[in-house]
Amino acid sequence: MEFILASGSPRRRQLLEQIGIRSFAVRPTDADESLPAGIAPGAAVELLSVRKGEAARATADPDALILAADTVVALDGAILGKPHSREEAVSMLTILSGRTHQVYTGVTLLRGEAEHTEHEVTSVTFRPLTAAEIDAYVSSGEPMDKAGAYGIQGLGALLVERLEGDYFNVMGLPLCRLGRMLIRFGLDPLAGGTGEEMP
Questions:
Q1: 165 Ramachandran zone, left/alpha/beta (phi>0; psi -120 to 50)
Q2: Which residues lie below 8 Å from residue 85, measured CB to CB, with a gap of 6+?
Q3: CA distances from 6 to 37, 76, 128, 158, 178 (A)
Q4: For the chain, what percent of residues have pLDDT higher than 70?
Q5: Alpha-carbon distance 11 to 17, whole Å?
Q6: FRET label pair with 92: which of 22, 51, 77, 133, CA 20 to 30 Å apart?
Q7: 3-class secondary-structure state, position 195
Q8: Which of 77, 78, 104, 100 is nearest to 174 (CA)?
Q9: Is the distance from CB of 189 to CB of 21 less than 8 angstroms?
Q10: Per-residue pLDDT at 197
Q11: Over the stretch 140-150, which tens digit does the pLDDT of each residue have?
């Protein structure tokens, strides 16, 4: 049975493989990523993951299991997207310095007409950063394609003092929650399921 990851994120591919799901197709979508004004971060990531999943379903086999996800960083309830410039990356990292923010990931699974969506939240605290440290990190190029202008799985790990919640959620896919969700669709990675054995 076909398993589709509706995301081009190499980190999500890596995390699926980490839990033993190695047979899957990668099909990123061009779903609408605009958000209603004032939407809460948890509702935002659920909405965006649903849009991505439904966009993938439109061209997929009806029996395929589709996984879609969306991750945002929020500070005091305000969503920080991906920086569009060096200056924006510096600004984001400056306001995150020495503070605790939240990372939200919405996860949607679809198979046929069945659809289920949840979200995970992890609190992340940055140590205080100097302007020189922020400049050096931005110069590495790592922040430019990541929500909140950092990647915890790379050099961004040097910025994180502590976190509370699912570490993998900060990478873009909350594995514990995903595992429980997959069971609802007949796939149990802990029991050795890889996607090929789905009924």
A1: left
A2: none
A3: 25, 29, 36, 30, 14
A4: 96
A5: 10
A6: 51
A7: coil
A8: 104
A9: yes
A10: 45
A11: 999 998 999 99
Which residues, including other chains, have CB under 8 Å from residue 10's CB and lie 6 or more apart?
Answer: none
Alpha-carbon distance 25 to 27, whole Å? 6
CA–CA dist 65, 199 (Å, integer): 11
What the block records as the tokens of 66 is 């589709």
30-63: b (≥16 Cβ within 10 Å) or e: ebeeebeeeeebbebbbbbbbbbbbbbbeebeee
**Which helix (H) or strand (E) element contains residue 49?**
helix 41-57
- At residue 144, what is the residue type? M
> Which amino acid, residue 27?
R
Burial (CB < 10 A; 0-12, 13-18, 19+), residue 151, is: buried
Q: Specify the amino acid at residue 56.
A: A
φ/ψ bin of 186: left (φ > 0), alpha (ψ from -120 to 50), beta (otherwise): left
User: In residues, how long is the chain?
Assistant: 199
Of the listed 30, 32, 70, 188, which one is catalytic? Answer: 70
At 99, give phi and psi (nearest 5°): -125, 165
Beta bridge partners of 45: none
Supply the pLDDT for residue 193: 61
What number of other Cβ atoms are within 10 A of residue 139's Cβ?
A: 11
